[in-house]
């Protein structure tokens, strides 16, 4: 469950390792909202973990679940999928 803030946005994060070409991609049903910003931050030096952050402007939190999908851009199958159900409460 991910809580929508008072300004109508939700921030979704996922740990990223930065190796192997894997990237987090946002799968967002159009009726739910729109992606405002995507950012990847590195924690520490070389080889350190990082975090993928997605900021979504939510129109309809009941429009379906939102997924973060970890995969290589040239491959079809993800290695990990995170599902978020949005809530204003």
Explain what you see.
The protein is mostly beta strands and 89 residues long. Helix content is 0%, strand content 53%. The protein is built from no helices and 8 strands. It has strands spanning 2-3, 9-16, 23-27, 33-42, 50-58, 66-71, 80-84, 86-87. The strands form 3 sheets. The chain has a 3-stranded antiparallel beta sheet with strand order 2-5-4, with no helix packed on it. A 3-stranded antiparallel beta sheet has the order 3-6-7, with no helix packed on it. 12% of the residues are buried. The mean pLDDT is 89.
Task: Specify the overall morphology.
Answer: globular
Helix content: under 10%
Count of beta strands: 8
* First-residue to last-residue Cα separation: 10 Å
The total count of helices amounts to: 0
Rg from Cα: 14 Å
- Give the biggest beta sheet: 3 strands, antiparallel
The residue ranges in which pLDDT falls below 50 over 5 or more consecutive positions are none
Task: Name the quaternary structure.
Answer: single chain
In short:
It contains no helices and eight strands.
């Amino acid at each position: 469950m991910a809580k929508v803030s008072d300004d109508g946005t939700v921030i979704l994060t996922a740990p990223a390792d930065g190796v192997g070409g894997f990237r987090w991609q946002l799968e967002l049903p159009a009726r739910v909202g729109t992606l405002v910003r995507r950012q990847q931050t590195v924690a520490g030096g070389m080889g350190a973990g990082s975090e993928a952050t997605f900021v979504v402007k939510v129109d309809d939190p009941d429009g379906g679940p939102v997924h973060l999908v970890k995969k290589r851009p040239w491959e079809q199958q993800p290695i990990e999928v995170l599902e978020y159900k949005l809530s204003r409460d």
